[in-house]
Write a structure and sequence with these properties.
The chain is of the alpha/beta class. The chain has ten helices and eight strands. Helix content is 43%, strand content 15%.
Length: 229
């Protein structure tokens, strides 16, 4: 399994038109360029139809946006771990607020990632859920209050106690687990504040994907992570 260097930036492409098809490939290449120029650990999570092409074209880690806890067979419309591996994917988001799962399915999916050698980043919407997820021993947890997603109002400013409470609860269970935060991150200052609160990185989407200049914005984010190392 690939070893990631902290701090971590995961760019979730979601299903924005700005990160679809050819535009997704260009955005991924910009992320690769920023990573090589700054030394920052940047991961991209494109849509499923773009995964194989992007994983082939770039030299930074590629995550899926979701994985189903299934085995090969009659599972129409589901996402298979073996297919992700074949596409060159090294990890996956799990339980994003826009693709939530039951706790039992999160557990099965985390177990599957361990079996298949994929990195798991499990999202949670509050500190208590983060603690429950930490008990499942994923590779990374990410705290994202859904009411702040896409607002441009960072959780580190609006509700910093969510971050600190999450860190305290999760580290009572697993002191070594990296914790990311997301929701509303749109400026380098937001990244710096998140790291100062004790996180090991960020999960960001529209702040990069829909930025006027995604390369420049991501570059400032990457520089902010390097200054906190």
């Amino acid at each position: 399994m690939l070893k990631l260097n902290e701090p971590i930036i995961i760019v979730n492409f979601k299903t924005y038109i700005e990160s679809t098809g050819k535009k997704a490939i260009e955005l991924a290449k910009q992320a690769e360029k920023v990573s090589k120029e700054t030394g920052a650990q940047i991961i991209v999570a494109p849509q499923f139809v773009d995964l194989a092409k992007i994983a082939e074209d770039i030299d930074i880690p590629v995550f899926a946006q979701h994985l189903d806890p299934i085995t090969p067979g009659n599972n129409t419309g589901h996402i298979l771990a073996e297919a992700l591996k074949e596409a060159g994917v090294v990890g996956t988001l799990i339980n994003h607020s826009e693709r939530q799962l039951r706790l039992i399915d999160i557990q099965k999916t985390v177990e599957l990632t361990k079996e298949k050698g994929l990195i798991s980043c499990v999202c949670a919407n509050n500190p208590a859920t983060s603690a429950a997820i930490a008990a499942l021993n994923p590779d990374i947890t990410s705290i994202e209050p859904p009411e702040l997603i896409g607002t441009g109002i960072p959780v580190s400013k609006a509700q910093p106690e969510i971050i600190t409470n999450t860190i305290n609860l999760v580290h009572q269970i697993n002191k070594k687990m990296p914790i990311l935060c997301g929701a509303g991150i749109s400026q380098a200052e937001d990244v710096t504040n998140a790291l100062k609160l004790g996180t090991q990185g960020i999960l960001v989407a529209s702040g990069i994907v829909k930025a006027k200049n995604p390369y420049n914005t991501l570059y400032t984010f990457a520089n902010a992570t390097q200054q906190q190392r």
